[in-house]
Write a structure and sequence with these properties.
This protein has 14 helices and 10 strands. It is elongated and about 75 Å long. The strands form 2 sheets. The protein has a 5-stranded mixed beta sheet. It has 2 domains: 182 residues, Jelly Rolls, CATH 2.60.120; 109 residues, Arc Repressor Mutant, subunit A, CATH 1.10.10.60. A hairpin with a 2-residue loop joins strand 5 and strand 6. By secondary structure, the protein is an alpha+beta fold. Helix 7 runs parallel beside helix 11. 50% of the residues lie in helices and 12% in strands.
Length: 298
């Protein structure tokens, strides 16, 4: 069985990469100082962002492989496992990593906003590809954080370090917005495939067997993480993925309601609702009338 490296603390990760620990909760790692190694599986007990500067095999999350090339950023949240594609080749790491523990940001603005940075939940083929100017800006943010670490801890250091991490993450949001546009060839046809997926789902007996389609299920069928999928749908349509699914659900429900041979309870079951009352509430919220009222009106 392949051995997994576990990094529970910032100190552990610094030691592994031959970097000095200047602060127990945050570090900017120069990966070129690390010893040559193969890319084994790794568990992280903290937030970590990799800026890759050299091609050295594929980085795997779960069963999927990151679209991870030179000049890319990959974001991992605490508790995630990343690793190799079973490549035993020895390579010299190059690039940088920003790692910070959740304890660093408790009680701060970043701590309150950390869930907004949905890219910490992205998975396969979803790394952030940087232009040269964007890469330089990222390195500048890392440099400012490292500058504060070099100065030592004082009453200002935590606020400035956290502010620079937050600034870097806000820039990453902007860069991902740009990527959703510039990498349109990668995403081309996503909405069409999403629409076809929902059409096929509601035309089959899956709703009665599996229930209502979830965002997570749809994302898995399209080989995307639910976070990345949700962000893409939002950027393209202005709706959340859940709102998009519900819109399709209501469209299908309206067609079925015109069939006077079926009771509302039957229609609710065919759509995947466990309880007809739930269907009635959802329909009225979206349409303004109950299913029975809508049938009578039409």
């Amino acid at each position: 069985m392949e051995k997994m490296r576990r990094f529970e603390s910032i100190y552990d990760y610094n030691v592994f990469n031959n970097n000095e620990t200047k602060h127990p909760l945050v570090t900017v790692v120069d990966l070129s100082k690390a010893d040559p190694r193969s890319l084994s599986k790794m568990y992280f007990g903290f937030y970590i962002v990799f800026l890759k500067d050299v091609k050295c095999g594929d980085l795997v999350y779960g069963r999927d492989t990151y679209d991870y090339q030179e000049g890319t950023l990959v974001f991992l949240a605490p508790g995630q496992v990343a690793g190799s594609n079973d490549n035993d080749d020895i390579y010299q790491p190059k690039g940088h990593a920003l790692a910070f523990h959740a304890d660093l940001i408790h009680g701060t603005s970043l701590g309150k906003r950390i869930q907004e940075y949905t890219f910490f939940g992205y998975q396969s083929n979803e790394a952030l590809h940087l232009s040269e100017r964007e890469r330089n800006l990222v390195l500048d943010c890392f440099s400012k954080i490292d500058y504060e670490l070099e100065r030592g801890v004082d009453k200002h250091s935590k606020r400035l370090i956290v502010a620079n991490i937050e600034l870097f993450l806000d820039y990453s949001v902007r860069f991902y917005d740009r990527q959703f546009i510039t990498r349109d060839n990668v995403h081309q046809g996503l909405l069409e495939r999403f629409e076809n997926l929902l059409n096929e789902y509601f035309e089959s007996d899956k709703p009665e067997i599996l229930g209502l389609p979830s965002v997570t299920w749809c994302a898995e069928q399209l080989n995307l993480s639910s976070n990345y999928f949700g962000d893409l749908v939002k950027k393209e349509t202005g709706k959340t993925a859940q709102e998009y699914i519900q819109s399709k659900l209501i469209d299908v429900a309206k067609e079925k309601i015109f069939d006077g041979n079926k009771t509302i309870n039957q229609i609710a079951g065919e759509l995947g609702f466990k309880y007809p009352q739930h269907f009635a509430r959802v329909f009225k919220k979206r349409v303004g009338h109950t299913p029975n009222e809508y049938r009578s009106m039409n």
